[in-house]
Amino acid sequence: MANNLLKGKKGIIFGALDEKSIAWKVAVRAKEEGAEFVLTNAPIAMRMGEINKLAEQCNAQIIPADATSVEDLENLFTKAQEILGGKIDFILHSIGSSPNIRKGKSYGDLNYEWFQKTLDISGLSFHKIMHVAEKQDALNEWGSVVALSYIAAQRVFPDYTDMSHAKALLESIARNYGYRLGRMKNVRVNTISQSPTKTTAGTGVGGFDAFYDYADKMSPLGNASAEDCANYTISLFSDLTRMVTMQNLMHDGGFSSMGISEDIVDMISK
Ligand code: NAI
């Protein structure tokens, strides 16, 4: 169902790795809604080649950039504006990775160098992206910047280890840069706190299947899918949400307001 919600808008979409990626679904929906954008991901993700399929489907160019490198980001914003022929209206940060989670380190046994990598890739990169956009004056008035977060920023999910701190950092950056870009350019900055979703990053977290099912049974609407998340993201890029900024927006089928559900009670009483 396309309504030209993003007609004439230009964007940069970070983090489409494969068809399961939330960023992939956002790109497909953004195209349907009339946007033009460039796709970007870390050079290592490019080698897997999947993103070429998406680029073809969306008639978009790909510019590799490691989101932790300010130099790569400078190159990305310069080229994106050349390719798109103007300033940027929307940015999606859909980036997350924790070497500690990948290597199975528990919370009490974190490697601190990897911890810093987690924060850099999954949190600080959001600051770097907006910093470069600001320095290049690359954003249009009334633009919209969105990053994806998870409720482990507020509540304890033991297997989410250092990513929970990265998400807390990410949400804090959204508030602080939201203030700054709001004052400067009327640009809004928000995070979407998404349900557990079966993607490469999601399923890499220990015990994922259990907390996917748990969240599904706790939420009156069930877990929000990647497609639902893409739709919500499109609404935030559209002019229908111009006054929403500096928010962490729960997109979780009601999970975050629940104490316990009948389904969970039934499960435990069995
Ligand atoms: P995904 O694995 O498809 O996407 C993660 C992306 O981050 C990949 O494209 C990867 O190449 C990219 N990335 C990693 N290091 C990078 C770097 N240095 N520079 C640039 N890009 C880099 O998984 P998914 O689930 O689509 O993740 C997208 C976002 O959604 C992440 O922020 C994740 O934490 C968040 N999220 C995911 C949930 C889930 O259960 N899957 C739940 C809530 C939030």
What does this 3D model show about the protein?
The chain is built from eleven helices and seven strands. With 270 residues, it is an alpha/beta fold. It has a single domain (10-269), classed as NAD(P)-binding Rossmann-like Domain (Rossmann fold), CATH 3.40.50. α1 links the parallel β1 (10-14) and β2 (36-40). The N and C termini lie far apart (43 Å). The model has no long low-confidence stretch (mean pLDDT 97). The structure holds 1,4-dihydronicotinamide adenine dinucleotide. Residues 14-15, 17, 21-23, 41-42, 45, 66-68, 94-97, 121, 148-150, 194, 196-197, 199-202 line the site of 1,4-dihydronicotinamide adenine dinucleotide. 1,4-dihydronicotinamide adenine dinucleotide binds at residues 14-15, 17, 21-23, 41-42, 45, 66-68, 94-97, 121, 148-150, 194, 196-197, 199-202. NAD(+) binds at residues 15, 21-22, 95, 167. Its EC number is 1.3.1.9. This is Enoyl-[acyl-carrier-protein] reductase [NADH]. InterPro entries: Enoyl-ACP_Rdtase_NADH, NAD(P)-bd_dom_sf, SDR_fam.
Looking at how many chains there are and whether they match, the oligomeric state comes to single chain
Strand content: 5-15%
- Alpha-carbon Rg, integer: 18 Å
Top CATH class: Alpha Beta
Q: What's the CATH architecture?
A: 3-Layer(aba) Sandwich
N-to-C SSE series?
EHEHHEHEHHEHEHHHEH
Give the helix tally.
11
Tell me which ligands are bound: 1,4-dihydronicotinamide adenine dinucleotide
**Total individual domains:** 1
Number of strands: 7
Shape summary: globular
Quick one: CATH superfamily? NAD(P)-binding Rossmann-like Domain
Separation of the first and last Cα atoms: 43 Å
CATH topology: Rossmann fold
State the helical fraction: 40-55%
What structural class results from the helix and strand content? alpha/beta
Largest beta sheet: what is the strand line-up? Answer: 3-2-1-4-5-6-7
Q: Main sheet?
A: 7 strands, parallel
- Low-pLDDT residue intervals, each spanning 5 or more residues: none
